[in-house]
Amino acid sequence: SRETIREEIGLDPDSPTVLFIPDTYIFNLIRGYKSALYIHVWCVRNPLSRLFGALFKVRTIKALRKSFDKEFGYHATIAAVRKFCDNNGAQLLLASRRRQGWDKYPFTKEELEAADAISEGGEQYPQSLLRDIVAADLVIAPYRSGTVLEAAGNGKPMITMLPPPNTDIGNEPFFAKQH
């Protein structure tokens, strides 16, 4: 049951639970999947590094504007999800689609600080992700995730994040139009 799974994960079985599935592209080193704006502004927390990336790496007015926008960035997204949970009395569960080989630990500092519980999956992935979806009342994930099908199949509402274009030519038209 949902309550049993929550207890196994270390969550309060009676409290609402938001499942956040982090953006997998942060640890993916393949350049073709990510735009310069994504790499040098969206994923960067330090304001000076964001400004440098916008001026010397991305080199667009849009990037320069976004580098000053405190609400634009992966770190701001994590903070917004945490605030949503706090405002609604919900606990935040992190479950990753990231493979362990992508980094020493498949979560960012901001993700770890925001989470009430973490489900690493490990050898049980992808089945562990389905278990985490069953435990959740709401699922939040990047638009690139196939989780929308898994959430719908389990009757869970889902919020889909739309990060900056994942390539320099823009988001795939299907996902950009559908979400």
Please give a structural write-up:
- Helix content is 43%, strand content 12%.
- With 179 residues, the chain is an alpha/beta fold.
- The protein has a 5-stranded parallel sheet.
- The protein starts with a helix and ends with a helix.
- 37% of the residues are buried.
Helicity range of the residues? 40-55%
Please tell me what the overall shape is. elongated
List how many beta strands DSSP finds: 5
Q: What is the tally of helical segments?
A: 9
Largest sheet: 5 strands, parallel
Structural class: alpha/beta
H/E element string? HEHHHHEHEHEHEH
Task: Provide the spatial order of strands within the biggest beta sheet.
Answer: 3-2-1-4-5
Kindly provide the radius of gyration, computed on alpha-carbon positions and rounded to a whole number of angstroms. Answer: 17 Å
Low-confidence stretches: 169-179
Quote the average pLDDT: 82
The span between the termini is 31 Å
Q: Strand content of the residues, in percent? A: 5-15%
Main attributes of the structure:
179 residues, alpha/beta, disordered C terminus, 9 helices
What is the secondary structure topology, with strand pairs?
Blueprint: H1 2-9, E1 17-20, H2 36-42, H3 47-58, H4 61-68, H5 74-87, E2 91-95, H6 109-114, E3 117-119, H7 127-135, E4 138-142, H8 147-153, E5 158-161, H9 173-178
Parallel strand pairs: 1-2, 1-4, 2-3, 4-5
Task: Kindly summarize this structure in a few lines.
The chain has helices spanning 2-9, 36-42, 47-58, 61-68, 74-87, 109-114, 127-135, 147-153, 173-178, and strands spanning 17-20, 91-95, 117-119, 138-142, 158-161.
